[in-house]
Design brief:
The chain is built from 13 helices and three strands, in the order H-H-H-H-H-H-H-E-E-E-H-H-H-H-H-H. It has 328 residues and is mostly helical. It has a three-stranded antiparallel β-sheet with strand order 1-2-3. It is globular. One of its GO terms (biological process) is DNA integration.
């Protein structure tokens, strides 16, 4: 079922496409929003064509003020999917060529080990001022240790249920993740101990409304509002002495995932694994759809830990012996 009321001449085809995609297992949330924008665009411009014409598409493809290349790409991609779907059911449409995928020059913020210790200390020293029954302060020391120690996404952590967290066997099950896949995430004994401490205090809450969820607010409800955690994180960064630059440069909560990934790759490389051989392992652990999503950690690892590059170069030099030249 769609979250929007489509009413343009293409409304039925849009809703049918969304239903088909979700039947195939795709969440199709961002695309649904883009198609709703397109639906409104068609209405505002009084388009009544039964097919999607070049005029409709070319005006839609025009870059908007202050729009990033990535946003424009996603707008065009969603419309091309709709046009292709309509062609498949027998309605002739104009299908433009996809623009090039915009190259990202984004460099994530990598927390140092000293900064992580400062973050943990700031979490442990948080004090709640006033009566805020919906506060999530109780989960923060455990949540941020979990994000750093496992690299899971903030949404994956907040959606954990008690049945997903196996502290005796030291693993968690991540269900319905970003790519609609489930995966098992091993955890360390120290993280299990931290989780047990949290559960001990959580069980003392007077009210537990959403009993099945692992992370609960003081009111006993599921901690589902990520923006609330983000506000606390800004305070934690301030108390930890880590400047927040903003403007998409962070530091962000999601950078804990990047930090985990980089340190995991560094550890595997120092223990003798080849960086590129480590990529499939890390990609599976992180729940990446392909190793291409993991590949940038290799480049980042070489920049931040140049000694690893020299180590690899030394090993490579030993593969082939130096030629010995005789008198022949």
């Amino acid at each position: 079922m769609s979250n929007y009321n489509f009413s343009s001449v293409y409304a039925k085809h849009i809703t049918d496409l969304i239903s088909m995609k979700r039947d195939f297992g795709y969440k199709y949330v961002t695309e649904e929003f883009v198609l709703y924008q397109f639906d409104q665009y068609v209405i505002c411009n009084n388009f009544t064509f039964t097919s999607i014409t070049a005029e409709v598409i070319e005006r839609w493809m025009e870059k908007r003020q202050n729009e990033t290349d990535a946003t424009r790409y996603s707008r065009i991609s969603a419309l091309i999917q709709l046009a292709s779907y309509m062609c498949d059911i027998g309605i002739s449409n104009y299908i433009p060529r996809m623009p090039r995928i915009p190259k990202s020059d984004f460099i994530p913020y990598i927390y140092s080990r000293e900064e992580m210790q400062a973050i943990f200390k700031a979490c442990d020293n948080l004090i709640l001022s006033g009566l805020h029954f919906n506060s999530v302060i109780i989960i923060l020391p455990t949540l941020f240790r979990m994000l750093y120690a496992t690299g899971i996404r903030i949404s994956e952590a907040l959606n954990l249920q008690d049945s997903d967290v196996h502290l005796d066997e030291n693993y968690m099950v991540i269900k319905e993740a970003k790519n609609r896949t489930d995966r098992i995430v091993p955890i360390s004994q120290s993280l299990s101990d931290v989780c047990r401490q949290y559960v001990h205090y959580r069980e003392r809450l007077p009210l537990k409304v959403d009993k099945k969820y692992f992370f609960l607010s003081l009111s006993g409800h599921k901690c589902g509002a990520k923006h609330t955690v983000f506000r606390w994180f800004r305070l934690i960064l301030k108390n930890a002495g880590i400047p927040f630059t903003g403007n998409h440069h962070g530091p962000r909560i999601h950078d804990l995932r990047h930090t985990f990934s980089l340190y995991a790759m560094e550890k595997m490389t120092r223990e003798g694994s080849d960086m590129y051989h480590s990529m499939p392992i890390l990609a599976t652990y992180l729940g990446h759809k392909s190793i291409q999503s993991t590949e940038h950690y290799v480049r980042l690892c070489r920049v931040i830990f140049p000694e690893l590059e020299r180590q690899i170069e030394f090993i490579n030099q030993q593969i082939y012996p130096e030629p010995e030249y005789g008198n022949d």
